[in-house]
Design a protein that fits this description.
Strand order of the largest sheet: 1-2
CATH architecture: Up-down Bundle
Helix content: over 70%
CATH topology: ABC transporter transmembrane region fold
Order of helices and strands: HHHHHEEHHHHHHH
Distance between the termini: 47 Å
Structural class: mainly alpha
Shape: elongated
Radius of gyration: 28 Å
Number of helices: 12
Strand content: under 5%
Number of domains: 1
């Protein structure tokens, strides 16, 4: 079956630096905010940011509501408990409305961004017969159609989610660190007869714990990027072999090549399984960090604040507020931990798109003798559309 295969592949993006792949991919995709589509791009981006501010406002309201409720319960103040409960429907309604706005702006932005990038890639691929010339030149990466149809989507959709997560993490960390600082205050400890005061001890604990978990996750999960890339390449090769068997069914059947085709597909699938298993083992190692942290995060602030509560310096409402704020800060600091697998998947898909871009960049202008082919113009949608 080797006589039907594509030409030799250019060097894989796995051989390039991660920064180079990200830089090339972003150089293409960020033009969505600077070219003809910029008005709709910026409108959706601003709308998404405002929606995230609304979500943060709801989160702060929930934190204050919890503190007020627990303080009222501690005092056994029935009137205060009833008044606090009456506020709950308003908070729920606000949270639902903010969530709807985030979902709508996020998904429309993902669709419009993919629409622009796909149109740009297809237009470039179809212009000057590049779809044929990269085959003749032997620089065509495997399965360019999958790179445009699938990898563009798998590389763009997570980028929007990453931006939302990072923006929310920064806002959340700044806001809830303030709550930890104000409510938690300082802690006085006595060691070997000597007294020491630790200012903003809950903030220090949150930062030390969050940074430590993030460093551990990066150390354990860093090989995941390359393993996801190799798995995706194996999956694409399997799809290619199956497609090739279907498209060349007649000549293969005439040559009685069914057994050889089955053996070739089985060999490719063995590669797929092997690369999946290697990635699964790494997922298991990373889960030690992520799940262990997930169990400890809601409990650690209660342990840390217990001495001040027992000394009468904190109310039960303060404890609830500190615990919730600590969890929010950890979610912000350990954002990379929670998204490391998605980062690896994004990098693999972005690299496959970069492969196609580099293959087209290798081509010179078409020779004068080359016949021209009429190509349907493809363009990115303008803001007016």
């Amino acid at each position: 079956m080797s006589d039907i295969g594509p030409g030799p592949r250019p060097p894989s993006f796995v051989d390039q630096s991660e920064a180079a792949v990200a830089r090339m991919f972003m150089a293409l995709t960020l033009r969505f905010w600077t070219e003809g589509s910029r008005r709709i791009a910026w409108a959706l981006s601003v709308g998404l940011c405002l929606s995230l501010f609304a979500v943060l406002a709801v989160d702060v309201s929930v934190n204050r509501w919890q503190s007020a409720l627990f303080n009222a319960l501690e005092r056994r103040d029935v009137a205060a408990v009833k008044a606090t409960i009456w506020l709950l429907p308003l908070i729920v309604l606000g949270g639902a409305a903010a969530g709807v706005c985030v979902v709508w702006t996020r998904e429309v932005l993902q669709v419009r961004w993919r629409e622009w990038v796909t149109a740009t890639l297809v237009s470039r691929w179809a212009t000057d017969n590049r779809f044929r010339r990269i085959q003749v030149a032997g620089v065509e990466p495997a399965n360019p159609e999958y790179r445009i149809a699938d990898d563009v989507r798998m590389a763009l959709d997570p980028l929007v989610d990453f931006a939302i997560g990072l923006f929310s993490a920064i806002l959340g960390a700044a806001t809830f660190i303030g709550i930890l600082w104000i409510v938690g205050g300082g802690l006085t400890v006595t060691i070997a007869g000597r007294t020491a005061s630790i200012p903003a001890f809950m903030v220090i604990a949150a930062l030390v714990y969050g940074i430590g978990v993030s460093v551990a996750a990066v150390y354990v999960g860093r090989p995941l990027v390359a393993r996801v890339a190799r798995r995706n390449e194996a999956e694409a090769k399997l799809r290619f072999e199956l497609t090739r068997l279907r498209e060349h069914a007649a000549p293969i059947a005439a040559a009685d090549g069914g057994l050889a085709a089955r053996a070739a597909i089985a060999g490719v699938y063995d590669q797929v399984v092997g690369r999946w298993i290697a990635m699964i083992w790494l997922h298991a190692r990373l889960t030690w960090v992520t799940n262990g942290s997930g169990v400890l995060v809601p409990l650690l602030p209660l342990v840390l604040a217990a001495p001040k509560y027992l000394a009468g310096e904190l109310s039960w409402g303060d404890m609830a507020s500190l615990a919730a704020a600590f969890v929010k800060v950890q979610g912000a600091i350990t954002w990379l931990v929670d998204n490391f697998r998605q980062v690896a998947q994004w990098y693999a898909s972005a690299g496959r798109v970069v492969d196609l871009l580099e293959a087209m960049d290798r081509l010179e202008s078409p020779p004068p003798s080359e016949s021209s082919v009429d190509v349907v113009p493809l363009r990115a949608p303008s803001a007016a559309e």
